[in-house]
Fold:
Amino acid sequence: MSTNSPPLIETFIPERWVGWSMDFIEAGYTGLLIKNGRLVRKLQPGRHFSFALPLLEQCDLILVDTKIRNLEIISHGDFLSQDQYLINVSLNVMYQVVDPQRVALELSEPIAALVSAVKDTLGAAIGQLRVQQLTTQGRAHIRQYILDKTDVSYSLGFALEDVRVNDISFPQGQGIIRQVEGMSAREEAEYEAALKAQIAQAGRPQILPPPVQQVNIISGRDPNSSNPAVGGTVEANGIALEGLPTRDHLTLAPTVIDLNSRGEQIARLVNNSSGAIALLSTSPFTIGREPSNTLILDDNLCSRHHAQVIKVTDPQGTVRYQLIDLGSSNGTFVGGQRVVPNQPVSLNPGNVIKIGSQTWTFEA
Structure:
């Protein structure tokens, strides 16, 4: 926003003669007359007279700019595309105050609230597009998406008049997360090479080679055999994100098989990228970054205690599995739908579960 623009909200103490004051409200402003901390009148442009008992009543006049104003929003790697690449976007948002009372009296930081609302909508718009789409139709899609979702800003007392996307770029250096489902390492390399070529043609900075994330499970037997390998170890390599050091090879705690499960089909989660298998041999089966979890994910988009899978038996004796999101920061998704935190969701064979930047298929 321009540094020369007048403030959105100004507060004055009216000058009075024998308790009377005359105030003039300019065009493009709305006045709020506050007496002893309470709103007593909303003043439209024009001349207004008010009276207050000397020494007994304290009056303030709040002027709210209701003209169309401009707000510049610049992100620095705040958003992820659908194919999990960091995206930078700069916007010019034209907005207008439509509820002066809410903006001036109910919001402690109205501009910060507006920026947060626009960024939330911006993140949802970017999350629907892959890098190829962002380089071709990203500007038009983002602009239209934000203009279609103005109800959030309107509830804060603002109306969005127009949105202009100034630039869409891709951060250089480390910090770009790669997660292409169902692709081998060679296919991912070819895919990334094609992306870099397309970005270069669009006049954007090239993406440097991102770090590789691998998850491997060491097991000498069929995981669903009657004598599964007890103490199968889950291993993961660290993933380097911008501003964070690359961790050395990390060996995670062993996954212990419940001996009471012998003779039963053991449900499992299969990583869609690496093929790693995690047996749901305990209940609850916890997932997160902390070493105390059953399945430990070395993933910076995964919460310390992200989710858990519990095993339940209905009155007919049928064994079922339920997934519960433990209030994670980035959410847990089943079949592309975000689950409600702390609400159990029944799992069916073939369900695809997304946690952080990884996807797993539930098999039973």
The first strand starts at residue 9 and ends at 12. The CA atoms of residues 112 and 290 lie 33 Å apart. Residues 173-182, 203-263 have pLDDT under 50 and may be disordered.
